[in-house]
Write a structure and sequence with these properties.
Strand order of the largest sheet: 17-16-13-14-15-12-18
Largest sheet: 7 strands, antiparallel
Helix content: 25-40%
CATH superfamily of the largest domain: FAD/NAD(P)-binding domain
Number of domains: 2
Shape: elongated
Number of helices: 13
Strand content: 15-25%
Structural class: alpha+beta
CATH class of the largest domain: Alpha Beta
Distance between the termini: 24 Å
């Protein structure tokens, strides 16, 4: 047992990720008289921050409108809209820049450290925590939390101690068993399922075009109203990229129920409509009718994809535009706007996994992140039933909820 007699409050944060560090820093900043400790069950802190964004760390998004921002969360939209009133993306950017981390906003509004190194974010969080006097402990997996009349009893490594407040920031869990000790606290746990994943297409020849990116595509789940928009990446296992990841997030539960077997329809020309496309065909034939169709790709898609689509429709690439004919025109129009592919399975991002599910938001006070069941118990980050699409939104929810939990944990 540590000698903590000089402190008026014992606060323990469970989980040393983004939300955990931000909650600890916020707690120590707002309640300097408290002893704030972070318990991480693994051997390293901020592991997900380190590998996120290909090692660059998409720290947040520059979208500032709270309504539009909250709409980027398939789970937690209304909850976060309220939370963003206390700490939003602008506050996040100012927080890091005021601590010596210059940031860069890209055209898609994704925000990265100017260094393009996630270590810049890690170093900043680590330095701030140490400067404030936050204690950081690894290899401390909590076995049990027992609510007391005033505070909690926590057990780990055959050690039991009493603390005044607990903030749970253990992140998303791939299996329901990862939440079992929280269920023992009578909290309702929404079963976790993968939220961001790529589509496997083992029987689709388009996989041969792996590496090709279409910058603006629209993808729909056949038979559903789900739509994903943006860059689409063809991979050796199927399709990925923001358009696909959006679909996987919004359709997480529907796709899980289908056992990840479904079909998608791709508009390779973004939101181009049929009449507009047919007009484009007429103009191309009028201006370049004598050219071979394989040598003149009038659309903003890679040439390799254009040739693939010709082959898919059994159109001879040596055909002149003048000789395309109504039948082949109809085929190409349909393929460019509604190209169908069969999905059979998914691939998740392992260490970067994001899940839908977690502690039921109805049991958490959005103004404080405190449990409505156990006063003194707080939550932050993906341990709650919150998840966002790609673009820095999952980190932003971690910063927001961590800040609020820390700000209120000593009250």
């Amino acid at each position: 047992m540590l000698n903590t007699s000089k402190y008026t409050l014992e606060i323990v944060i469970l989980g040393g990720g983004a939300a955990g560090f931000f909650a600890a820093i916020s707690a120590k900043k707002h309640f300097p008289q408290a002893n704030v400790r972070v318990f991480e069950k693994t051997s390293k802190f901020l592991g997900k921050v380190k590998i996120s964004g290909g090692g660059r760390c998409n720290v947040t998004n520059a979208l500032s409108n709270h309504r539009l921002l909250s709409e980027k969360y398939p789970r937690g939209e209304k909850f976060l809209r309220k939370a963003f009133e206390q700490f939003d993306t602008k506050a996040t950017m100012e927080w890091f820049e005021n601590r010596g981390v210059p940031l860069k906003t890209y055209p898609d509004l994704c925000v990265f450290p100017l260094s393009n190194e996630s270590q810049s974010i890690i170093d900043c969080l680590w330095k701030e925590a140490k400067t404030l006097g936050v204690e950081l402990w690894t290899l401390r997996a909590i076995d049990k939390i027992t609510p007391l009349e005033n505070g909690f009893e926590i057990s780990y490594k055959e050690v039991t101690e009493k603390v005044d407040r607990v903030i749970v920031t253990i992140g998303g869990q791939p299996k329901l068993t990862g939440f079992s000790w929280l269920a023992n606290l009578n909290h309702n746990i929404i079963p976790p399922i993968p939220s961001l994943f790529t589509f496997n297409m083992p029987k689709e020849p388009i996989r041969e075009l792996m590496g090709i990116v279409v910058e603006q595509a629209v993808v729909r789940i056949e038979g559903q109203k789900l739509v994903g928009k943006g860059p689409l990446l063809i991979t050796h296992w199927g399709m990925s990229g923001p358009a696909i990841l959006q679909l996987s997030a919004w359709g997480a539960r529907i796709l899980a129920e289908s056992n990840y077997e479904f079909s998608i329809l791709v508009n390779w020309l973004h939101e181009t409509k049929e009449n507009t496309l047919r007009e484009s065909f007429v103009k191309t034939i009028s201006a370049h009718g004598s050219k071979m169709i394989s040598n003149l790709n009038p659309f903003e898609i890679p040439n390799r994809l254009w040739l693939f689509l010709l082959e898919k429709n059994e159109i001879n690439p040596a055909t002149r535009w003048n000789d395309l004919g109504a039948k082949n025109t109809n085929k190409l129009v349909n393929t460019l706007l509604n190209d169908r592919y069969v999905v059979q399975g998914k691939t998740t991002f392992k260490e970067e996994f994001v899940t839908a599910g977690g502690v039921d938001l109805q049991e958490i006070d959005v103004n404080t992140m405190q449990s409505k069941i156990h006063p003194g118990l707080f939550f932050a980050g993906e341990v709650m039933d919150i998840d966002g699409i790609t673009g820095g939104f999952n980190f932003q929810s971690a910063w927001t909820t961590g800040y609020i939990a820390g700000k209120n944990v000593g009250n």
